[in-house]
Design a protein that fits this description.
2% strand, mainly alpha, membrane, Sodium/glucose cotransporter, 2 strands, single chain, two-stranded antiparallel ribbon, globular, transmembrane transporter activity, transport, Na/Glc_symporter_sf
């Protein structure tokens, strides 16, 4: 299991991992409520997080270990096309500023914990509630699994192979999440984000100087793409529509996920959310700097088994042992924070929109919290099984589907904030068309999230999620128009 282990790097990694573990267990005493035996306290931190805690928590949700690994890997593989995450994280914040305070207020006023709660409260439909909740859980599972993929890349760089190190890390995560709930990742996010900022700033400041400057970095990347006949440091004309629609669709989907909504619902006010919509673009700068590491991998002449190894290989090759250990710890901790929030978000959905709705409608507050805690453990085990027994590439394919799936919950969740015109049967039909139609299009394209269409002229490529969403909305509108007019209830 252990080959080519560097004691210094491993020692630094273990120190910071243990530090984060201690913080995870201490979190149960941080801002301690009267009881954690309530889903509002365990699953939403008492809805009390202010501007800075929310900033770190939502940022920690949004910029994950897989982001640190996958975005540079995509840029390393395909070039400029991999930068779609930059405009996407710019477009998302006006959406957050306008929509999320209204959604937060709806949840706060009625005690809603999940997107499924909001939908059931608005439309009174158990079927639509279940569709939204199930979509959230299914879309989250591969996302958690991909945090494990990011951690696997780090453990591999440390010389640790096999399933045991990964299993130990997630057992620790499961224990302190069970103990402290959302307070654990909220507290850890402070440490995680500071570590990530240090690592990225050091990387973009020092790595180019070791590689002959940014001019050589871009020239080397361009030469590498030309040599293999795939990718470019600039977008090609045929990529513009695909790039734009992928960015826009990803922006719409980002805050439909249970983990990002959990961070929103845990805020203490709509004003806090608006402040964060203004402050969070600082993470976009961070993401742009991270993406450049993909180009630096070409300039460094790395010999990689997988593109996912590009960032760990850069640190291992170009930095001292102790800083490499620090960087690997930052990436690993960056897996734990979002994985914890994702498991909490999925557990909240299962508890409120399945267990309470169908199994035990009279469950007590303490019983509800207990079910959520146990569910969070099951979610983590499920994600661990995905990564251990399915090929990583299959998990990546599922994550691509996850974005398309979660986007289909937007009409049911958001439209009701602005209008009462839509009715549950119409929205449920739209969800069905978008969910299964989008799944088919992705399968038909060889598990790629893009689909080629033509209106009689030159064909162009569009993000499948937006096509599915357009079909979703069109079906919902058509069915809604066809439904009998609702008669007012006589007094």
């Amino acid at each position: 299991m252990t080959i080519e282990i560097n004691p210094t790097a491993l020692g630094v990694f273990i120190f910071f991992f243990v530090l984060v573990t201690v913080l995870g267990f201490v979190a149960s005493r941080w801002r301690k409520p009267e009881t954690l035996a309530h889903i509002d306290e365990w699953g939403l931190g008492g809805r009390s997080f202010g501007t800075w805690i929310t900033w770190f928590l939502v940022g920690g949700d949004f910029y994950t270990a897989y982001t640190v690994i996958a975005v540079p890997a995509l840029v390393y593989t395909v070039g400029a096309y991999g930068f779609f995450a930059l405009p996407y994280t710019i477009l998302v914040y006006p959406f957050v500023f306008m929509v999320m305070p209204l959604l937060w207020k709806r949840a706060k006023d009625f005690g809603y914990v999940t997107a499924g709660d909001v939908v059931h409260g608005q439309y009174g439909s158990r079927g639509l509630e279940l569709a939204v909740a199930a979509t959230g859980v299914v879309a989250t599972m591969p996302y958690i699994a991909l945090q494990l993929a990011g951690m696997t890349a780090v453990l591999k760089a440390l010389g640790l192979h096999g399933e045991l190190p990964l299993a130990i890390a997630f057992i620790v995560l499961a224990l302190y999440t069970y103990s402290a709930g959302l307070r654990a990742p909220a507290l850890i996010a402070f440490v995680k984000d500071i570590m990530i900022y240090i690592v990225v700033i050091a990387a973009v400041a020092l790595i180019p100087s070791k590689l002959g400057g940014y001019g050589n970095v871009f020239a080397s990347a361009d030469a590498a793409f030309q040599a293999k006949g795939k990718g470019d440091i600039l977008l090609g004309g045929s990529q513009y529509v695909a790039y734009a629609t992928l960015a826009f669709g990803s922006a719409l989907a980002a805050f439909m996920y249970p983990h990002t909504l959990t961070g929103i619902f845990a805020s203490n006010s709509g004003k806090t959310i608006r402040k964060n919509a203004v402050l969070l673009p600082a993470y976009t700068m961070l993401l742009g700097l991270l993406a450049l590491l993909g180009y630096m991998g070409h300039a460094a002449g790395l010999n990689l088994d997988s593109a996912n190894d590009v960032v760990p290989a850069l640190f291992k090759t170009l930095f001292s042992d102790w800083f490499s250990g620090f960087a690997f710890a930052a990436i690993a901790v960056g897996a734990l924070v979002p994985a914890a929030v994702m498991s909490i978000g999925a557990a909240n959905l299962f508890t409120r929109n399945f267990w309470k709705a169908y199994v035990d409608p009279q469950v007590s507050d303490a019983g509800e919290a207990r079910v959520a805690k146990i569910s969070s453990l099951v979610v983590k085990v499920g994600a661990l099984l995905v990564i251990l027994f399915l090929p990583t590439q299959f998990a990546l394919d599922l994550q691509l589907l996850g974005g398309i799936w979660i986007l289909q919950t937007l009409p049911a969740l958001v439209f009701g904030l602005y209008t009462n015109w839509f009715r549950a049967p119409a929205l449920l039909t739209g969800w069905f068309v978008g969910f299964f139609g989008g799944t088919y299009l992705v399968w038909d394209a060889g598990w790629k999230p893009l689909h080629m269409i033509s209106f009689g002229g030159e064909p162009f490529t569009v993000y499948t999620g937006l096509l599915a969403l357009a079909a979703n909305i069109a079906a919902a509108v058509a069915i809604n128009v066809a439904l009998p007019v609702r008669r007012p209830v006589e007094a």
